[in-house]
Structure prediction request, 79 residues.
Amino acid sequence: MKPEPLAAVIAGNVSRFRSEKQWTQQRLAEYAIRVGLSWSRVTVAEVEAGRRKVGLDEILVLALIFGRPLLTLISPEDF
Prediction:
């Protein structure tokens, strides 16, 4: 089985973690802004759709926001 591209893994995990917390895309964007990212609801939508790559600094911040270990953001769900 071919591994899923990292951007797709991150996109799926961001979407899943956000949904688990029952947050809107806007709410996630607001949390991101509070910790220094220049994100909007559109940014979250682009990340979740895999249309925008996420930098290492953003991955670290997302792990903090979601209260999850960094590896859970970059690992496939079934890993």
Remarks:
- Residues 6-20 form the longest helix (15 residues).
- Residues 32 and 57 are 12 Å apart (CA to CA).
- The two ends are 13 Å apart (CA to CA).
- The mean pLDDT is 94.
